[in-house]
Protein: YncI copper-binding domain-containing protein
Organism: Arthrobacter ulcerisalmonis
Amino acid sequence: MTRTLIRRTLAATAATAATAALLLAAAGGASAHVGVTPDKTSANSYALLTFGVPHGCEESPTTKVAITLPQELNDAQPTVNPNWTVEKVTEQLAEPKKLADGSSITKRTSQIVYTAKTPLDHELRDALVLSLKLPDLVGTTLNFPTLQTCETGQTDWSEIPAAGQDPHSLKAPAPSITITAAASEDGHGAAATTADTEHAASVSDSGADGRSWAGLVAGVAGLVLGGFAFVRSGARRKAAGSAAK
């Protein structure tokens, strides 16, 4: 009876550990993309977009990250990161573009390029933040093709999903956000809308994911140790019973 219970306990522990290992592997693959997390997505609002760089190219350190702005945007202000130098790349427009205030522009910022002062180790992550004004285009998805250059090789995060396709099914999807309805007419400093909150909740945060999976690993480890403790306890009881006889 005791041996049967021990075998069942060990089998359940092994199965749980194997399941956790598979889940960890899947989570690692899902969170490996260079992605973007907006603090808000309301149309005509000022937003901070955080681009996460979770790893290098295979095992090669990252040396440069070039973020291409979609045609719907005219400019973006890069946030200073002490680990990187940054420059704005401009392009000449084919014809003047009229803005909402009546003025016109002949150039726009097409790229923000961050260059690492010291190559970012492939096992470390960093975050690059852009400040910009979102256009008044509710329902529009803005794609930010991002070229990650490493000491050896590069990854072009520029794949755009087809209509109805899950971006996570792509090998190298471009970071993207979808513009939602504005919270108020001024759109500047307004409280986030329900859509913003739902969008933010749906964005995967690498740090939070890491803490969650670390907790799972700790739980599995505890289960394994508990199983061994149970086995040892049973063995001691059996030995004590034999001695008493």
Observations:
- DSSP finds three helices and eleven strands in the chain.
- The helical segments are 2-30, 194-202, 206-244.
- Residues 13-30, 185-217 have pLDDT under 50 and may be disordered.
